[in-house]
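Can't attach files on this board, so I'm pasting raw text. These are the components:
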Amino acid sequence: MTKRLAIYLMAGRDVPALAEAAAAGGADIVEIGFPFSDPLADGPVIRRAAEGALADGMRTERCLEVLAEARKRVDVPLIPMTYAALLEAYGYQRFLEDAAAAGATSLIVADLPIDARAELRRVQLVAPTSTDDRIRMAAQSTDGWLYLVSVAGTTGARERLSDQLPDLARRARKLTDLPLLAGFGIATPQHAAAAAALTDGVVVGTRAIEVAEAGGPEELRSFVASLRAGVDGAPALAGERIP
Amino acid sequence: MSDDTIRGVGTVTEAFAPYGGRYVPETLVPALDELAEGWRAARGDPAFHVELDRLGREFIGRPTPLTPSDRLVPGRRIYLKREDLCHTGAHKINNAVGQAVLARRLGKTRLVAETGAGQHGVATATVAARFGFECTVYMGAEDMRRQRPNVERMELLGAEVRAVEFGTRTLKEAVSEAIRDWIANVADTHYLIGSCVGPEPYPELVGELQAVIGREARDQMLESAGRLPDVVVACVGGGSNAIGLFSAFLDDEDVRLVGVESEGAASLASGRPAVLHGARSSVLADDDGQVIDAHSVAAGLDYPGVGPAHARLRDQGRVQYVTATDVEAVRAFGLLARREGILPALEPAHALARAIELDDEVVLIGLSGRGDKDLAVVAGRPELDAE
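---
Top answer:
Structure tokens for the assembled complex are below.
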């Protein structure tokens, strides 16, 4: 099976151009972060990006507009990733409807546990701390694929791939045939290759945001292309030393 | 965790509906289940209660006195529940000792906590020293500046104090960073939250550990005044001392209960239902659910959220929530110092400010902490000397 590559971008006026660059570089999925003032799951880079986005007026309605603009320029799935606080204020059902109308595919909520808001169809996250029972519950209710949080921790680039991912990937694989995408702490083509060898693909957020902030769409495209090469080379790397 | 366990905790889950809940990353759910289960087991274990009672007497200094205050407002019978006389100088130690015993039962080796005024950080550093835990305390850089003595106390007790240098640089950001630390170290670390806020089971757990304040105060009122108070007044930031004091009087229908918030941090008086730090409650937030900064002269009240129990008590009409300004709190601080020889913390000075205006005959005030930490904050303010 072809490995999948998801790229996370923070909502902003440049998201349509960045989404286009990510897709051109080989991203299969683009996640768009809807910023929250108190993001418990996020490390310093995404937290600062969220602060900047909020300062730039990226409130829920404006984020949906940005998503709709990106939709006109790319064909890949665009997935809003946000926090429950925004949905509480906007209305869960209203959000699902308006996001779909803007061209969103599914939803990720960083701080809704698997069994909370069962009626809210979304991509579920499981973590190294998740019991097999909870992974099974997540697989039953998730929307299309499972997000493996590869490390007990917040979002952010790390030097090494998490040593907690192999066990999580192995347990999840036993419990479901759904695609498993690993995220949190995956920053380089080497990480992506190693993680993809254990799973069906990866999500890269923090480093993508840093690259986009520093170099704009062109740098992002080339960074995503390097991740693509890493992910596509994954089977050959299986069994090799995890960098 | 089996489904049965989750259902067993379900009664807790509905305790504060439509408030409370667990809005946390999935990573933390097993730890919260473990904590809820550990708490349920401890609560049902007589040895746990014996140990808490003993530590209360021998380490905290319980029961704390009830002090009749004759000079504060001539002609009124005012009683002060003296949590300022607890070891470490505030009610925070009641919760810290209880959670430390629980953390030891759960096999944890490290405590992480947030602190605003520094009182909870000092209490956590104290129990970490007493029970042999490693300890990390997150504190906003702005709070470290205005509560310097408490930073030094924590460090002397062996805790590492980590400055939070972003956002408001106060309690809100310190809580977020403590939770992020817990997410990354959840296997060996217990998050010793300082108030009746956060995801379940924390609000109920902290409320129960602080309920000793109300149990003692109610007995002491009956003994000392020969009757229950007409009104009970406590300050509310996150709300743990207030819920602890109020809890013993909730069924006494003739006793009015008044919570006093800082005017610039009035989550109950001017907030709206929103999600912050793992729970739904009444929060200072905008139309989009983004949290708005709070402002208070009292670092311990400088928080845009509040425990879900208070949001529910407000909606039920059982507790009335009012506000006091910075100026009123500083004035009350000075009055209590000059008329009764007691330096209150600026947090309960908010309760004093509203309580002294009341017409009720018998008034009980929760004096949740002592004011030594606030001397640098109040020094030179003209309202300090106002009569």
